[in-house]
Specification:
Order of helices and strands: HEEEEEEEEEEEEEE
Strand content: over 45%
Distance between the termini: 75 Å
Number of domains: 1
Oligomer: single chain
Largest sheet: 14 strands, antiparallel
Number of strands: 14
Radius of gyration: 23 Å
Helix content: under 10%
Shape: globular
């Protein structure tokens, strides 16, 4: 056999061997609607209605049944990995008539291609008299049947619907886009170009919450709560 013939035979053998070897797994994807691959890394900013820049602070207040409710939303510099996806931690502090009742640490990440804001979990601490008394409502995507939710789409189409969170036995919250260009007035300011949604729950079908998000700011209305102050 000539040298050229031996080289060709060896090349054919190598190709055949490569075809029999196991291939590296491909990253899973949810397609349009958010990054869902367990090994993917999502972006931490980019959606105008849901800014995740560290240091951002939103304060919303409202009166319900004679009680002053206050919600403080802080975007922390802290990140957490959920199923291989780097998520921004957003801390929500709930007070009723000045008394701390709940601190929730929400986990979000933004798909760099679609700008969809994925919702990857909640760490909930319930308080009574300044002491933690429970963690009901806590969940993390990819554990115990919990799925990644969609906090805010990158493209808003009135009438579009999606699951904000879907956790067996804990939550099944859905949202519908009512407007992508609403005007919203709050004690802090008047906002234009807002996204307004209505959230409902399969577990509590009689309840609904209207929320509004201003570009470059974030949530400015959450049910009876309205933005009273914010820090970029």
């Amino acid at each position: 056999m000539t040298l050229e013939a031996m080289t060709k035979a060896l090349s054919v053998a190598c190709i055949a061997l490569a075809a029999t070897l196991p291939q590296a797994p491909q990253a899973a994807s949810t397609g349009k609607g958010g990054t869902g691959g367990r090994g993917d890394t999502a972006a931490l900013s980019g959606n105008p209605w849901f800014p995740l820049d560290p240091g951002r602070l939103l304060i919303l207040e409202g009166v319900d049944d004679g009680q002053l409710d206050r919600l403080e939303v802080r975007v922390l510099a802290e990140t957490r990995s959920v199923g291989g996806i780097v998520c921004r931690v957003v801390e929500e502090t709930h007070l009723e008539d000045g008394e701390l009742v709940e601190i929730t640490r929400c986990l979000y990440a933004i798909d760099p291609e679609t700008l969809d804001v994925g919702f990857y979990g909640e760490e909930v601490d319930h308080y009574r008299d300044g002491v933690i008394v429970g963690h009901d409502g806590s969940w993390e995507a990819f554990l115990q049947g919990a799925q990644r939710g969609l906090a805010m789409p990158g493209e808003i189409k009135p009438g579009a619907r999606w699951y904000v969170a879907q956790v067996p036995g804990i939550t099944a919250d859905r949202a519908e886009a009512l407007s992508g260009n609403a005007r919203v007035t709050t004690p802090a300011a008047r906002f234009t170009g807002c996204v307004t949604t209505e959230e409902t729950s399969e577990l509590e079908p009689d309840e609904n919450t209207v929320k509004s998000y201003a570009p470059g700011v974030g949530v400015v209305q959450d049910g009876h709560l309205r933005l009273v102050a914010h820090r970029p």
